[in-house]
Amino acid sequence: MTTPEDARHHRLGELLVERRIQLAHSFYERRAFAAATGLNERLLLDVENAKRPRFKAKTKAELEDAYQLARGSIDRFLDGRTDSLEPLPEQDAAEVETVRRLDGEDRPIGRLSPEERAIVLAYRQFRSQEPSGGAQERGA
Questions:
Q1: For a designed S-S bond to 34, which of 41, 79, 98, 125 qualifies (C-beta 3.0 to 4.6 A apart)?
Q2: Mean pLDDT of successive 10-residue stretches along the chain, which has 140 residues
Q3: C-alpha R_g of the chain
């Protein structure tokens, strides 16, 4: 038996998939989105397929940043206070880009133009597709 809460989680997953593809056509592939945002692909799979009904606050914040949603949008949707997810206003979307530091923590890059954001995402995707052999494959 499906509960209203289960239905909300399924609908959340559908909305997140729609949002992911809306952000960039290349994000049709979940793997590309995971690589570009630094999120774990399994986490994305679980959330988008409603396999993970509860998240830590930090995870929700990371999801909202990755999907460029207003802070608290996921909670408002799951609580039934809204019937859709709230995208960031365009000027705020430029502020959520981050880079992964060597210690694994993310830090803000700062305000980016849409063109700069596209360059960062393309670079991340390029780096994620590089062969793991490194020096051997370069002939060193």
A1: 41
A2: 85 94 87 89 94 87 91 93 88 50 49 63 74 50
A3: 16
Residues in the chain: 140
Residue 18's Cβ-side half-sphere holds a number of Cα atoms within 13 Å equal to 10
**What is the C-alpha to C-alpha distance for residues 81 and 128, in angstroms, rounded to an integer?**
38
CA 103 to chain centre: 20
- Domain ranges in the chain? 4-130
Pairing relation of β-strands 106-108 and 98-100? antiparallel
| CA 83/CA 76 separation, integer angstroms | 9
Q: Which tokens sit at 48?
A: 């988008």
Is this structure's pTM higher than 0.85?
no
Distances (CA, A) of 108 to 11, 40, 50, 87, 96: 30, 19, 29, 19, 7
